Amino acid sequence: MSTTAVPALDKTFQILDLITDSSQPLTAAHIAKQLGLPRSSTHNILQSLLTKHVIYRDADSRFHLGSYLLYWAGKYEQQQGVIQLFKDLIVQYPVLLQHTVTLSKLDLGEVVFLACHEAPAPLGFTFRAGVRVPAVFSATGKAMLSTLSMHTIQSLYKGDFPSPLTPNGVSDFDTLATELRIIHSSRISLDDGQLRDGMYCLGTYIRNASGNAVAGMAVSFLQVEYESKRDEVSTVLIELAKKMEQRLGFLPTHSV
After folding, report:
1. Consecutive sets of 10 residues in the chain, 256 residues long: mean pLDDT of each?
2. Closest alpha carbon to 194 in 145, 151, 150, 138
3. What structural domains does the chain harbor?
4. Are 244 and 85 contacting, i.e. CB atoms less than 8 angstroms apart?
5. Which of 98, 143, 174, 253 is spaced 20 to 30 Å from 122 by Cα?
């Protein structure tokens, strides 16, 4: 059933989503069959997308995402003041520059990575813009969730708690609520190997002029570094978050 007044636009998004989600490039026939669309309309939409370089076709007539998406992504990034603030201000904090620092936003029940400062020494895990992970296992996700009520959080997941990604993952809403209460008082969240075994992340949230948490930041460590770096990094991370909030118009009189 169409979700907009323009059915062709719905079909276009279905096709782009299918190409994006597929582990391998797809032919026009495969796309039409998978989505249950007429071959003629599938062909017409693909041709329009090819003309704009939103997709491209390889030598085997299979379709891939195209370069025009980078233009959209670049324009989107320019509009996101928090991303530019992150890039501008993090250079003022030498302690953080020694580590991998990520910037994320909350999208329903997931965290979407927006930007990353890579540590000089690689972590063995790449944070790419656009990657999504369940917020309940992520340091940035839990930091942002700590500003919401448990009722709101449960509604994000429709009452079904996500399956843990590692043996360390929090496993239910009650356990999560305990973590969030600690974060609420300290402003620091912890991913203790919940996204990836052996990788620890300390996170915090960033609020805008309305007092809403619009982003989260996290510093990532190997597990062996965590204890010795935790206190210093937590302090500096909160300093950076507060400076970003000030630039975004947040007033300290707002309550979390």
Report:
1. 67 92 92 93 93 90 86 62 90 93 91 87 67 92 95 90 92 93 93 89 92 93 86 95 89 62
2. 138
3. 7-70 (1.10.10.10), 80-247 (3.30.450.40)
4. yes
5. 143
